[in-house]
Amino acid sequence: MAGLDACLRNGADIIVNTDADNQYCGEDIEKLVRPIIDGQADIVIGERPIDQTEHFSPLKKKLQHFGSWVVRKASKSDIPDAPSGFRAYSREAAMRLNVTNEYTYTLETIVQAGRERIPMMSVPIRTNAELRPSRLFSSMLGYVKKSMITIIRAFAMYKPLTFFAIVGSVPFLIGLGLGIRFIVYMCIGQSDGHVQSLILASTLLMLGFMTYIVGIQADIIAANRKILEDVQFHVKKLEYSIEKNEREEQKI
Hints:
Elements: H1 2-9, E1 14-17, H2 29-37, E2 43-47, H3 58-75, E3 87-90, H4 91-96, H5 105-116, E4 120-124, H6 140-158, H7 160-187, H8 195-251
Parallel strand pairs: 2-4
Antiparallel strand pairs: 1-3, 2-3
Helix pairs in contact: 3-5, 3-6, 5-6, 6-7, 7-8
């Protein structure tokens, strides 16, 4: 976010982000910015040849594909390589993005862009040989854990009603099944000794219902967040435009 802010304050029309480990080929920057220049998209993400990358282990390749699939479902996009850090943003897209997690921006920004209906696309890119181990994570387990937490957090933030409806459905359906089971026993006159299942069913039904209520409240908060993000976008647009005009006047 500090990088995007600095670029916008300096009048950048297109911002390209790359990783510090020299994983991506600088010559492919043209591939990233071309769709933005042509008006085809506001965010362009480089698609790495994951299956052909030699320094990726078989497990990492599968996890990369799985993580990208989860992000596609959460964002309703078709980005095949969600963790890719080689990407380009138009000026307007950069002003609309807000990253809140402290681990990685790659997954959250795609979910947010999908929710905001910012046009996205991917282009195939090349990768360089590995020069050093990644400093983003120390083990594959740590990478998977942090990535899943980031995806779940982003999904709950930008699609709260769907998220809490899924979570609340689990105890609600289990409680409903136990309740039906007790009713069946009661109808055949064998309800004695099954009062515990009735208590458990009531507890689970109440838990599921409360989770739905939390989802509705979270959805209302998300609607207010969207309004605040729109206000923030217009404030940024005005602020950066004033700074850009002042620099141009100084040059004249």
